[in-house]
C-alpha cells in the first residue's frame, strides 16, 4: 500500500546533485532539500538502496517522514514561494 512521504536531506555539497537527482526520480521537489509524494513499499526500498550508495553515512543525513495513505494531507505555504533553481550545488 502506498504511503505519502516527505523526505528532507542534509548532505555534503559534493553529493547534493546526485542525491537531488535520485530523489527527483521518485518524488516531487518542493524547495531546497525537501521532496514529497506517494511511494509504495518497493519504491521506498529501491530509493533507500540508491540513496545509501550515494551518501556518506558518517557525514550525511536523509530523513523520511511517512503518512498513512488514508490521511487527509493539508499543506499551506507562508511567504515567498520557493524559486525553481537549476544550479543545485
Task: Report on this structure.
By secondary structure, this protein is of the alpha+beta class. It has a single domain (3-67), classed as 2-Layer Sandwich (Alpha-Beta Plaits). The protein has 2 helices and 4 strands; from the N terminus they run E-H-E-E-H-E. The chain has a 4-stranded antiparallel beta sheet with strand order 2-3-1-4. Strand 2 (28-31) and strand 3 form a beta hairpin. Helix 1 (16-24) runs antiparallel to helix 2. The longest helix is centred in the middle third of the chain and has 14 residues, at 41-54. 12% of the residues are buried. The model has no long low-confidence stretch (mean pLDDT 87).
What is the strand arrangement across the widest sheet?
A: 2-3-1-4
- Structural class of the helix and strand makeup? alpha+beta
Shape, please? globular
Strand content: 25-35%
State the assembly state of the protein chains. single chain
- CATH class descriptor: Alpha Beta
Mean pLDDT, to the nearest integer, reads 87
Distance between the termini: 34 Å
Secondary structure tally: strands: 4
Amino acid at each position: 500500500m502506498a504511503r505519502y512521504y516527505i523526505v528532507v536531506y542534509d548532505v555534503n555539497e559534493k553529493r547534493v546533485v546526485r542525491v537531488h537527482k535520485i530523489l527527483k526520480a521518485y518524488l516531487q521537489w518542493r524547495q531546497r532539500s525537501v521532496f514529497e509524494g506517494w511511494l509504495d513499499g518497493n519504491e521506498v526500498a529501491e530509493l533507500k538502496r540508491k540513496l545509501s550508495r550515494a551518501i556518506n553515512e558518517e557525514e550525511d543525513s536523509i530523513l523520511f517522514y511517512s503518512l498513512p495513505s488514508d490521511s487527509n494531507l493539508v499543506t499551506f505555504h507562508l511567504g515567498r514561494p520557493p524559486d525553481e533553481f537549476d544550479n543545485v550545488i
